[in-house]
Amino acid sequence: MLSLLAALEAERPLQVVGAINAYAAKLAERAGFRALYLSGAGVANHSLGLPDLGVIQLADVLTDAARITAASELPLFVDIDTGWGHAFTIERAVRELERVGVAAVQIEDQVNAKRCGHRPGKELVEPEEMVARVRAAVRARVELAVVARTDAASVDDTIARGQAYAEAGADVVFAEALRSLDDVRRVTAALGVPVLVNLTEFGLTPLWSLDELREAGVGVALYPLSASRAAARATERVYRAIREQGTQTGVVDEMQTRDELYDVLDYLRFERELDEL
Questions:
Q1: What pTM does this model have?
Q2: Distance (Å, whole) CA 111 – CA 133
Q3: pLDDT tens digit string along 228-267?
Q4: How far apart are CA 254 and CA 252, in angstroms?
């Protein structure tokens, strides 16, 4: 499996798209993306039906990650929130995720009772505690990349924390909730490692184009839940149509066809092999 850093060498900024399950990963690979992301919010919202408030555990993430890495050769970058405790839980998370083929983990500097990065009321641990988290992840990895996220409230604090996390061994710094391209330029100019910008919809960061991000020196452009949000809206429409109209005929044109599904899954090859057996 290609590493996240190798993908970064091949494409800059590297576009990383969220895949909440194995089938979404296959669709992203067919669309030409070079890397995938498994969001903690994606696991909480879509696998467990829970809000993104630090309630998921390693086992939840490991299940979804293993299914995705089994289905796609693209490097998978996985959100591990705050690491679920302390140095030993972080080290275990890294070892277990690398064992199932994960290419990178993201760890953040919020307190354990974390919030979405684009919501008010976030609380951060002291930089020294986050440095210890990063060092624990780096100690445990073999080849996996470590991405350190900061939810710092100011650009100056983002830079200071980002520099400390890079010195601790982080391969990429995730600068959450930046508000302007000038802020992005300041951060990328100050850090000696690639900077990730999160282009999540309905948040605090504008939806900048790839050209704007490239000019600002961004290393990774992340689209964590774009496809899953669109899929959820489509699901709502189909359910409503069936319930209200008593038939799905009005929304069939919005659906992926059976033949298209079979093409993605290479279904006919499996069927031929079954016939031969």
A1: 0.95
A2: 12
A3: 999 999 999 999 999 999 999 999 999 999 999 999 999 9
A4: 5
Q: How many C-beta atoms surround the C-beta of residue 227 within 10 A?
A: 18
202: left (phi over 0), alpha (psi -120 to 50) or beta: left
Q: How many CA atoms lie within 13 A of 239 on its CB side?
A: 6
48-103 pLDDT per residue, tens? 999 999 999 999 999 999 999 999 999 999 999 999 999 999 999 999 999 999 99
Q: Tokens for 15, please give them.
A: 């576009």
Q: How far apart are CA 248 and CA 238, in angstroms?
A: 7
Q: Which residue has the tokens 């300041």?
A: 186
Nearest Cα residue to 222 out of 232, 233, 234, 213? 213
Rounded CA gap, 75 and 268, in Å?
27
Say whether 110 sits in a helix, a strand or coil: strand
Q: How far is the C-alpha of 141 from the C-alpha of 234, rounded, in Å?
A: 39
The C-alpha atoms of residue 87 and residue 119 are separated, in whole angstroms, by: 27
**What are residue 214's phi and psi, to 5 degrees?**
-60, -45
Structure tokens at 207: 């939806």
Report the first-to-last Cα separation within the chain, whole angstroms: 31
Alpha-carbon gap, residue 69 to 76, rounded angstroms: 7
CB–CB of 107/148 below 8 Å?
yes
The answer to whether 29 touches 1, Cβ cutoff 8 Å, is: no
DSSP string, 249-272: GGGGGGSPPHHHHHHHHTHHHHHH
Query: Tokens in use for 129?
Result: 């505690």
